[in-house]
Amino acid sequence: MIPLSDVTPSALNNVTTQFILLHMARANKEPGLGAATCLALVADETAAVHFQFWGSECDSFRPGDIIRLTNGIFSYSGNRNALVLRAGKRGRIEKVGEFTMNYVETPNISEIKWVPEGASGRYVPESVVSPYSRIFPPLR
Amino acid sequence: MAENLLRPQPYLAENPLERTLRESFDTNRRILDPPFPLSIPTPEEYLCLTRAILYSILTEGRTRGIRLKYLHAIVVDGYASFTALTASVVDELFERLLDDAKEQIVWIAGEMVEVGAQGFGDLLVSLLRQVVGGDYGDGNMWLCFEEASLFLRKWSALLEEDGEGRSALCCGFYCFLRLLGDHCRTRWSGDERLSALRQLEIDFCTKMLKEQFSLCMNVGRDLIRMLQDLVHVPEFHEIWKDLVLNPGAFGCPLFSDISQIYRIRTPSRYFLLRLTPEMERQMRFLLTNLKLGGQKRHQAWFWNKFLGTNPERETLVIDLIRFVCCAHHPTKEVLHSDIIPRWAVIGWLLKCCRKNYVEANAKLALFYDWLFFDERVDKVMNIEPALLLMVCSLPQYVAITDSLLEFLLLLVDNYDVDRMALITRGVLTSFDVLTRSGVVPSSDALTSAEGISPPLKERLGALLLRKEDHSAEAHAID
């Protein structure tokens, strides 16, 4: 289990972490994907990230739920600009509790510009596009 | 394959308690049916068997008679582990249990009272906490009805048990008296089910008041707070008259005047009774982990889950305020940190009130200990949030300060005109203790604050001037 601040973009299904669901957008059906998807803001005590629910996941969670992600993936989904965390085909999510978790809304690792580093191909942060989510702005 | 205990819910992680129960059942399944083994189980085996028996009763209700016989045969600890286990299932899983399992739990509770099991009182308390105020759904009405019947049906057995039984009766009395306040006012009051339930609750509470008044007094001053909400109900009207005019009617030699009850601080355990364990857990998290300013989402989630589901639920605000004032006292570290203070949470709860009578009752809940404050029995932490809410609202929300102060002054003049001296003294002592202990530097914070309406400030000033007279009178009362 790693904190969200340690998650970096990768093509591997190897992200196992835990976070609290802050906000969900309405589910929408993207042409070509088949199942509905739903974009959400999730966070832990170290960082926030955009999470993409898929299919029946969309109706099974609500804000305040504490979710454990096992073998998830943090990568560009749909169009190149959307950097999202999701369970993917090989990962899974489970509700493990609710409410009792602190969180921060900045940094948001989906709002960071990542670039591949030299030969390793590992992604490293290049610049902060926005400190907070531009899709789900913080409550004032 | 073991039968299900819980309603299936997709994407929900396995619950460790449910899993232990199921595994114990699977391990012991073959020896649960007679002929029972003659060997004496080791302590470890005994616990495992206890879990298996509980799981079996909850999931295969038809076998409950035979399972309980087995338990009677092997019991070595006065049923303590069995009742504790059942209470944990109630605390952790009740909402998710299948309906049949809920019925079995209520049955178990009755049986445990009957055998005088160790810990049956805690089990009854766990069940009482699952009845949700302002919830008129079938499941909640059913549970409330079952529990009220259980308390009436097992009346003698409960009275015989000096410790647990009598304490459980007091807890039941607190719960049903409080629930009646809602059940006699709701827009559902014409509902047939609710009428039947209300009659049971009335029967139980009036029986307690008429036959076991000294037990009722254990509840302390909140007994009066709740009873006053029921004066309009015919069955309580007479009792109220006796309470005020004819205290001898209760056959309780120690009781001669209502002011004796005013002076008993309600033990904090009673305030937990009207919160489910989940509400308590979330409220305590809010008050110990979230920074002031960063609590908005959590407050919204709390509201959506517990208060916003239907308009009747807002009555819970009254119980939440009593809980925050009297049953959740922050540590020094929290007090001196940037964690959201209690007064701010109470300010938010008050803002949630839409109905006037709920708001009035919520303010009464906030100030109740002020009215009878006595340094010898009362706690400064119980009255601290009200003053801080008034003072801290001054800069930005002076309307809140105004309405709270006006309410407090109204209480002094009208709450009990025959015992005005006692109440005036309580309120003056509250101001005095709060300034002496440094919660605010002095009452000037209010008397000289800009923004508070001048007539209110004058009335407060006049009240505070009465301090001198009251120190003299106080000695006379004592």
The outline of chain B comes out as: globular
The CATH superfamily of chain A is: Nucleic acid-binding proteins
Q: At the first level of CATH, what is the class of chain A?
A: Mainly Beta
Mean pLDDT of chain B: 95
Give the strand order of the largest sheet of chain A, numbering strands 1, 2, ... along the chain: 1-3-4-6-5
User: Percent of residues of chain A in helical segments?
Assistant: under 10%
Describe the structure.
The complex is a heterodimer of chains A (140) and B (478). With 140 residues, chain A is mainly beta. Chain A has a single domain (4-128), classed as OB fold (Dihydrolipoamide Acetyltransferase, E2P) (Beta Barrel). In chain A, 0% of the residues lie in helices and 45% in strands. In chain A, the strands form two sheets. Chain A has a five-stranded mixed barrel with strand order 1-3-4-6-5. A two-stranded antiparallel sheet of chain A has the order 8-9. Chain B is an all-alpha fold and 478 residues long. Chain B is built from 27 helices and no strands. In chain B, helix 18 runs antiparallel to helix 20 (342-351). The model of chain B has no long low-confidence stretch (mean pLDDT 95). Chain A binds chain B through residues 22, 56-57, 60-61, 63-64, 68, 93-96, 98-100, 102, 139, and chain B through 10-13, 281-282, 285, 289-290, 296-298, 300-302, 304-305.
